[in-house]
Design a protein that fits this description.
five-stranded mixed sheet; 12 strands; 53% helix
Length: 396
């Protein structure tokens, strides 16, 4: 193209000279200088880019290659037989085939890491179980909602945690009960020595003068009186006064012991008291760090045990390090119906509605295409087939 311009410029110069001749030499010199500068610029362009005119522009690629950030969370994303699978994975592969895009998945451990990868350009988009929130919409573009969910509560199953014999064993070996027994033994020893000192000087006393075996009988009397089962009373006046005081202490001790045992058994069934979000204050609730569940619990001033992965929250619940787990309802339902069947149960209704979406950088050129395909999948029944595959069938 530049060569053609140079040829036309040369022809123009010849015609201009013939037309103006030699009469207007001053005007010719000024114009000649200007045209010479233009010609020099064209020559410079030719020298610097000798192959521009000969090289055609590269043809656009027929397919797009996208990096898709994701994270493992059943049943949306997980690894099976060395391959990623799940509802979100199947949905994206269907969308990618419709928009003619090749894609490669890149796994991240947490939602904040996934969002950071999309925001910094390490990934073109992200898909998993990513809640659409007002705060996130200020930093990202989201697709139309791809899944409707919300938060729900997971607790230990009342069936797995019930049973009289194990609870009784836990009661007898609990720290509170051992403390009560220790105090009772100290009081028995003290009371036995007082009775032995008072009764050994009485001729008809119930305890002999010798320390052994007199102290053993005194200990037996003190223990029986503490349990309100004494069958013999001291003979001396000071001994009887001590016995009356000791009987009152025994009544108080029995009442205290009964209250402590009842409280311990009640604490063992705490999970049965959690039926809704109103029961969570005062409990330890496990969830994943950086999740919408953690934000919600923090706003409600509920004690949180934050862990990197939801599997660790399940483990904390089973080991009684947490009283409940709060997380996305479909994830909890899937776990309760499969790996946690018989061990845990989901209680209450969804108390915070949330929608999941595909996250993209702001002004992403793929948003419109993805939204168009999502609408088509819901209209032609493909979306419903994927939903039934991963949720209806897996619940049973």
């Amino acid at each position: 193209m530049i060569i053609a311009i140079a040829k036309r410029f040369s022809q123009y110069m010849v015609r201009w000279k013939v037309h103006h001749g030699k009469n207007n030499s001053r005007h010719f010199r000024h114009s000649h200088i200007s045209l010479g500068l233009i010609g020099g610029l064209l020559v410079l362009l030719l020298v610097m880019s000798p192959g521009v005119a000969q090289q055609p522009a590269p043809a656009p690629s027929s397919t797009q290659s996208l990096l898709v950030a994701t994270r493992a969370i059943r049943p949306f994303v997980f690894t099976e037989k060395g391959q990623l699978t799940g509802f979100s994975i199947d949905l994206w592969r269907t969308i990618a085939s419709q928009i003619g895009a090749e894609s490669k998945f890149v796994e991240y451990s947490t939602v904040p890491e996934l969002l950071s990868a999309v925001e910094t350009g390490k990934a073109n988009l992200g898909i998993s179980a990513i809640s659409i929130t007002a705060e996130r919409q200020q930093r990202f573009d989201f697709s139309l909602p791809m899944f409707a969910g919300g938060l729900q509560i997971l607790v230990r199953s009342t069936e797995s945690s019930s049973g009289g014999f194990p609870n009784i064993l836990q009661l007898f070996f609990s720290a509170a009960l051992l403390q009560v027994i220790g105090i009772a033994l100290v009081l028995i020893v003290i009371s036995a020595h007082i009775i032995w000192l008072l009764e050994r000087r009485h001729e008809d006393g119930m305890i002999g003068k010798a320390y052994f075996p007199g102290i053993f009988k005194a200990c037996w009397w003190a223990a029986a009186t503490l349990a309100t089962q004494a069958d013999e009373m001291p003979k001396g006046p000071l001994g009887r006064l001590t016995a009356i005081i000791w009987m009152f202490i025994g009544v108080l001790f029995v009442a205290y012991f009964t209250a402590s045992a009842t409280t311990s058994l009640t604490v063992q069934q705490l999970q049965g008291d959690i039926k809704s979000v109103d029961d969570l204050p005062g409990k330890v609730v496990a969830t994943t760090a950086g999740s919408t569940a953690a934000s919600y619990l923090r706003q409600q001033n509920i004690s949180i045990l934050e862990v990197p992965k939801i599997e660790q929250a399940y483990e904390a619940l089973q080991k009684k390090k947490a009283d409940a787990v709060v997380f996305d309802a479909p994830v909890l339902l899937f776990y309760a119906a499969n790996e946690g069947k018989g061990k845990v149960e989901v209680v209450g209704s969804i108390f915070r509605d949330e929608n999941y979406g595909i996250v993209l950088p702001n002004n992403s050129p793929y948003r419109k295409k993805i939204n168009s395909v999502l609408l088509s999948l819901k209209e032609n029944g493909t979306y419903q087939e994927l939903y039934q595959k991963w949720f209806e069938a897996k619940k049973s």
